[in-house]
Every structure is written in C-alpha cells, then in structure tokens.
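Tutorial, part two.
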Amino acid sequence: MNGWRHGWLRQIVLAGWLLVVLGPAIVGCAAPRGPAAPPPTEVQLSTIVIDGERLARRGEAVPVRVFRQGAALAVSPGMALLDGDRVETGPDAEVVIRYPSGTELFLRPNSGGRIGSFTEFVGELFAKIKGAFAVETTFVKAGARGTAFLVRGSASGSATVIVFEGAVELGSTRGEWPSTVLGAGTMARAHPRAPVPTAAPPEELARTREWVERLEGLSTASSGASAAAVIGVAALVAALLASGGDSD
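Running the prediction step on this input gives:
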C-alpha cells in the first residue's frame, strides 16, 4: 500500500513540474494565436543562415562580424544591435536584421553596412520597409517609406536599385544630381552619372523573390520544429506517468 501511495505521489509531483515548466511553452505553441506580439524594442540580428541551407546555432562560430566602436563582438542569432554598429557577412553567410518598426534587411554574403538608416553599405541587400528608411552607399541614397527594394552597392560607392513595391527616391548624398523616383518594377544605376530608370528584368525579380522566400522559409521552419519538440517532450513524460502507476 505504501509503495502504491509513494508511486502516485511521485507522479503527482512530476505532473506538477511538467505543468509549471512546459505548460507556458505548450500553450504558446499549440493554442490559437491572439494579437501579434509587439515588435522588438531594439534592432536585432535575428537570423543567420549558413551555406544557404541551415540556420546558425547559438554558440556556433559564424562567418558574420559585428563591430561596435571599432571592437569586434561575439556574434549569435538574436543579438541586439546599436546605432553605429557595423555588420559584415562572410562568403558563406546570409543574415536578416529586424528593426523595431518592423523593417527587415536581408543581406547576401560579402555584404556590410552600419546600423541606423543602413549606411556605408557595400554588397547586396533586400529591404522590406515599414515606415521611413534609407540605405546609403558613399555617394548614393535610396530612401523609401513602406516599400520593398533591392540595393546592390559597390566599393566605389555606386549603387543599383530595383524596386519591388511602392516607390524609392534615389538621390546623391553630395547633391551631384537631382533625385529620381523609381516605381515598382523599375531599376536604375547611380553614380557617377545620374540614374536613368528602366524596366527591371523579370529574371532579376524572380531571383530575388526566391532568395527572400528561402530565408523566410528557413526561419519559419525552425520555429515550427521548436514547437514540435516541446510538445513531443510533454507527450513522452505524460506516457511515462501513465505507465508508472504500479511501479515504485
């Protein structure tokens, strides 16, 4: 009799532990979603993708560098970024940077720029803008509000801009030519000459959309796997409880 009581007492204690530790996570993963969570209050290096195939793990050495006031920081997914920080991707890394406004920057390998409105940019990025935002090379500024566009910046300061949604104002940071507005489906290359809008090649648009969707898909798949793992652990412990009533 005492063994029976002790066995069930142990199960009650284990069930209570399970409810306290895993309950909030299970509810958060499985329950119907309410209103969206508020945006982060800081800029985040939210996603790091390695070799175009997988998400970087926390604690893993990644080919991404972050400099703050000239000093290199330890880099990990989800880290906070401050105005003035410089982010650089290596040849095998892609990153997503998220701003409190909801703006997202997708950086290809061998790209870099400084946090704020993204300045001193070199490489290739896709920007999904919420509110007002700008991407700048040394000589070219692409400013937008609530739009989506690609920027390809060279070390010389020139930039190619392709607009996917809305409109982008392309201007000279030194006032060397009048600003030009690019509409959706158009592109232009700027510096040293003034930009001349032309139609964007369909294959260029398709290539960029595929890239952005791939990064978004990797991030979503990772979140789903985490939810499934939590629920799986809960189910396993529950099965142990159910089978352990006669065991001491």
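The chain has a mean pLDDT of 82. In part three we will examine how such features are distributed along the chain.
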